[in-house]
Amino acid sequence: MTTPPGTPPPRPPDPQPPPRPAHRRPTDARSRPQVRLRARSTPPDSAAGSRGRFGRIKLTPNQIVSLIFGLLALVAIVAYIVLHLVPDLAGDDPTTPPTATAPSPTPSGATPTPTVADVDQPDRPALAVPDVRPPGFVDPPPGMGRARYERQTVAWRDCRVEEVAGLCAQVVVPLDWAAPDRQAITLAVFRRLGQSGDGSVIFVNPGGPGAGGRSLAALLHPPGLEAYDLVGWDPRGVGESTPVVCPGGAVLDGLLGLDASPDDDAEWRALLQARADFGRACWEMSGELLEHVSTADTVADLDLLRQLLVQDRLNYIGFSYGTYIGAMYADRFPQSVGHLVLDSAVDISDDDSVRQSAGFELTFDQYDAWCASSGCPAEVRKDSLTLWLDQLDQAPLAVGQRWLTQSLATIGVAQYLYYDQSAWPQLTEVLGRARAGDGAALLRAADRLWDRSPDGSYSGLLAGFTAVSCLDAPDRGVTSALRDWIRASQDAPLFGRLMGPDLDCVTWPVRAPLTPHLTGLGSAPIVVIGSTGDSATPYIHAVTMADQLQSAVLVTYDGPGHANYASGHSQCLNQVVRDYFLSDALPQPGTRCS
Q1: Rounded distance, CA 492 to CA 205, Å?
Q2: Catalytic residues, which ones?
Q3: Residue 552 pLDDT exceeds 90
Q4: What does each C-alpha distance from 66 to 72, 77, 235, 485 come to in angstroms?
């Protein structure tokens, strides 16, 4: 990432997309909060309508049309899935894949080998391991076993990251921690020196998965903690560390340009085949690396870094997906925990009733209510915008040599919702331009989410995001993903419907191990921060993480935005974290900041 998490976007005369925020985990088998989101009330004249004296809802003609179109779209989705793709809804085995009328989720020529995990991942193919060595494959250090890595010397050199001076190093870790005498890979590390000079370190991670941590160490400024060195590393599979290698350029343009909420057999087949082809290509280019980029592998790497930097305990600040790294570290290495701050928590519970799309829906409803009170043009309000997005499904908007499709426009809007209310005027202007026929700024926002450059090249963000996510959590196949989409469309009629089913992992060529239940038993106290208006990681995830990690204390930020600590949004949050690190002072249960 290129800016600290939570930094509000600038507002130039020609609107540009805001900086890419800390990324989020996709909604998957582990994203299971225990309580449903409750939307905030909207002003009387908002798009949600107002109640008259006798409780009747007053709707404008545009709202009535929008409601009819939304209901028809939802009915069409449900009817299509029931009739064509999910014939077993009446009570058959819920893990049964779609019938022959649905797109085949297995790439041509793949012959899945039955395993114990197949019950949870029925549509993931098993492919022969290719003979390939991605960049960063190296020989292990001298010696044997894990000790050979623990005895290596970290060779620091002067360098600059994001134009910030510091020290860089390359650390060697085993590809497979269960087989440390086989293949080794490399991690890229950046250290920004603090003021004390005593070597005390805070490790940082910006989220993702797929985002590197070196830039965050360069740009993050935790108030009051200037004495510490900040250390960021690109996790395995990411950035300058040994990277997951996948197709880019035109291939990703084609994949991301497909209709994410397909309406017929042809669109389903195209989407599933493209996902399967992408996974196969990543496998052929990355090989066995794809089997060893899980968060559990990263946590083992992090503990080695702690030892090599001579830190008795781990001090750590993680945002978004980085909270999962911290939570798993506390569970795997509880006796090595020093101070952990986990901001914008992902879900680690066992209930999937709140999905990420519901967070985007809630935040957009808050934006729509703000529009109602701020005099936004009618065409950027939710009812009119929904109609326009549905029209883009059949008639995309030309942007140079590219097209702003329904799916890309939806992602472009979501990109702005990572930020607090300061980004809303810019979102209004960008939407107004798109509605007037100029979709360039909205398309740039969608590009920004997946780190697409103007020249058409992509960073490794999407490759790392998919590889880590799909190894971290099993899925129950295409049929289950479609059922989840029905529920998501009901809970979030705009974003749940248009973001489509979560098909990232159902045809991924690596099966995920069992997902651990994280408790952090025996860990030192942990601070979990959640924001009530967070679109990417809904607040309830912070509630459940703080409840499940036995030593955790929840701090609530009453406001919008993702990753708010050290963003300049709350002196209260800054003080809580400063006191926690400097004097071991834990916030009182129920602490709220604004």
Answers
A1: 30
A2: 320, 534, 562
A3: yes
A4: 10, 16, 44, 20
